[in-house]
Structure to design on (214 residues):
């Protein structure tokens, strides 16, 4: 691993309880066989790199699942419903990018890693003809965080993404208060690098705890 002897990473050895939104047709497979991670593609723009994504809050996982499932059902004429799986995530190394140390560890890593690429004559182009600056930024972040996780042996990455007007908040008064007090809406996401770190999975849709615990 590169640079690891020079860096003190985040929390070591611990566990987190978190929530994953999905389609109802996927629940049994996840409970029995666990999650799977797709192979990377050059134009991927995942928020925190490749892995299995969870929300810290049940409500956000359910909202996300409901939004995606409705769009999927319309497109394919299916009748799935939104489901939420609770899981215990165990880790040897977790980096929280909301924290001073977590963010600086990543920045320090990338600075050294990028210099190494330049020295080796490797040129990275994340635009691929794309004019959308936000999409290009997401591609670069996805690649950089994947490198970070691989080189530093990171099992779990955490970060809170900020939204000014999330679809799940329907109260205009709450939007007004958020603006008055400068309290943006935040979605704390948890990205697990490998499914082997995801334990005790169970269907908790509508807070109805099932008997299936793995």
């Amino acid at each position: 691993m590169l640079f690891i002897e020079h860096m003190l990473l985040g929390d070591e050895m611990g566990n987190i309880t978190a929530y994953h939104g999905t389609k109802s047709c996927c629940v049994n497979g996840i409970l029995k066989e666990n999650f799977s991670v797709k192979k990377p593609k050059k134009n991927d723009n995942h928020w925190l790199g490749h892995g299995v994504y969870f929300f810290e809050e049940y409500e956000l996982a359910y909202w996300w699942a409901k939004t995606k499932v409705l769009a999927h059902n319309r497109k394919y004429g299916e009748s799935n419903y939104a489901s939420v799986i609770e899981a215990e995530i165990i880790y040897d190394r977790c980096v929280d990018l909301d924290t001073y140390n977590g963010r600086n560890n990543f920045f320090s890593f990338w600075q050294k890693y990028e210099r190494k690429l330049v020295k080796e004559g490797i040129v990275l182009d994340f635009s691929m003809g794309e004019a959308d600056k936000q999409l290009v930024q997401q591609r670069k972040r996805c690649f950089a965080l994947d490198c970070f996780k691989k080189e530093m042996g990171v099992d779990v990455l955490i970060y809170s993404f900020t939204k000014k007007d999330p679809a799940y908040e329907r109260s205009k008064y709450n939007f007004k208060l958020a603006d008055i007090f400068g309290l943006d809406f935040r979605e704390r996401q948890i990205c697990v690098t490998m499914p082997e770190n995801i334990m005790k999975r169970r269907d908790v849709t509508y807070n109805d705890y099932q008997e299936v615990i793995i």
Observations:
- The first helix runs from residue 27 to 33.
- Helices lie at 27-33, 58-76, 100-119, 133-152, 172-181.
